[in-house]
Specification:
Layout (H helix, E strand, L loop, with lengths): L8 E4 L21 H10 L4 E5 H4 L8 H18 L2 E6 L18 H20 L4 E5 L4 E2 L7 H18 L4 E5 L8 E2 L4 H9 L7 E6 H6 L4 H10 L3 E6 L18 H13 L8 E4 L14 H19 L2 H9 L3 H13 L2
Parallel strand pairs: 1-2, 1-10, 2-3, 4-6, 6-8, 8-9, 9-10
Antiparallel strand pairs: 5-7
Helix pairs in contact: 3-4, 4-5, 8-9, 9-10
The structure holds D-xylose and magnesium ion (MG).
């Protein structure tokens, strides 16, 4: 089994070991310390941790630049001592009162300035943690009613903000993570096509790529495997959040393959055919335990997602492509459909 995972490296964020609170009820499991979470990572067969800026430097808005660097260095030492890489750092632009009406696309120029300044701090933290990758999940860039903003101006604001980040650090690479909604009613940059197009408007498009999350593609009514293929054809898939989603509802961050095994199988096939990871990219599982999960099973959603990925990797590599191509050449799609199903069901 381990030989199959050699070409993929795995990652999760501290937020993926969550306590079960949801909008309708309190936590159901005790909070775990950061150090506890870090200690589990290697044991679960993972290689890196991804961070929000305030995972790396808590209460970042109230820290001086010197204090921020000091705390980031302390974290960097912890990671180095544990042999764990930092995959990326993402500015958490959806908590602060400054981002109530959006961050980069807020109608308030002071809020837009706050969002950019916070993003530059995030880049400084990434430098200390020795990662060049910044992920922008544009959580609050959207509207509850379209008349409150102007889509063209919002696009221009997003380009201007990214340009400021690209100018701040000549080595930084930015991956835009699209999502069509939630927390917004309708979000800007809803799909990977929008994210990649936005990058081409910036001052240095070769440093702007994208991140795909399975559930976000499903929420947009799209097939995550197609989104992966599209991004890979542009060389723009620089990070990846594999998980799952049962239809068009709140973002469930379910374990990979939990709802759509065939969709998961085709995501792995898409990664394989484009050799995702060949330039050091990680497979992250942006997943949460079910609220009903007991404390004793706090990590199982991560272990299961990685195990499912590796089992589907075996399936993808064992799939008889030659036989499949014969059925395609004969346009015998019923037989091809059944062939895939029986392959997944096992003989
Ligand atoms: C949304 C984002 C989020 C992280 C990264 O899915 O990936 O999970 O906070 O910004
Ligand atoms: Mg995500």
């Amino acid at each position: 089994m381990t030989t199959l995972s050699h070409s993929y490296k795995f990652c999760f964020g501290p937020w993926n070991i969550s306590e079960g609170a949801d909008p309708y009820g309190p936590p159901t499991r005790p909070a775990q310390s950061f150090d506890w979470k870090l200690a589990q990572l290697k044991q679960l067969g993972f290689d890196a941790m991804m961070f929000h800026d305030d995972d790396a430097v808590p209460d970042i808005d109230n820290k001086s630049p010197q204090q921020m660097v000091k705390e980031a260095k302390e974290l960097g030492k912890k990671l180095a001592d544990a042999g764990i890489a930092a995959e990326m750092v993402a500015p958490r632009l959806w908590f602060s009162p400054m981002t109530i009406d959006g961050a980069y696309t807020s109608n308030d120029p002071k809020a837009r300035q706050y969002a950019i300044e916070r993003s530059l701090k995030c880049i400084d933290i990434a430098q200390v943690l020795k990662t060049k990758l910044i992920v922008l999940w544009l959580a609050r860039e959207g509207t509850y009613l379209r008349e409150s903003k102007n889509g063209r101006r919002s696009t221009e604001y997003l380009v201007a903000a990214i340009d400021k980040m690209l100018a701040h650090d000549k080595k930084v690479r930015i991956a835009i993570e699209p999502k069509p909604n939630e927390p917004m009613d309708v979000a800007y940059i809803p799909t990977i096509g929008h994210a990649i197009a936005l990058g081409y408007q910036t001052r240095d498009p070769k440093r702007v790529g994208a991140l795909i999350e399975s559930a976000h593609a499903i929420l947009a009514g799209l097939d995550p495997a197609d989104e992966i293929d599209f991004a890979m054809s542009f060389g723009k898939l620089w990070s990846l959040h594999l998980n799952d989603q049962n239809g068009l509802k709140f973002d469930q961050d379910k374990p990979f393959g939990s709802n759509n095994l065939r969709l998961a199988f085709n995501q792995v096939r898409a990664l394989e055919r484009s050799r995702y990871g060949a330039h050091g990219e990680y497979v992250a599982f942006d997943v949460h335990p079910f609220r009903a999960t007991k404390e004793a099973h706090t990590l199982d959603h991560l272990a299961n997602s990685r195990r499912t990925f590796l089992r589907l990797l075996e399936k993808a590599r064992a799939f008889d492509d030659a036989a499949a191509q014969k059925l395609v050449a004969d346009r015998n799609y019923q037989a091809l459909d059944q062939m895939v199903l029986e392959h997944l069901m096992g003989k």
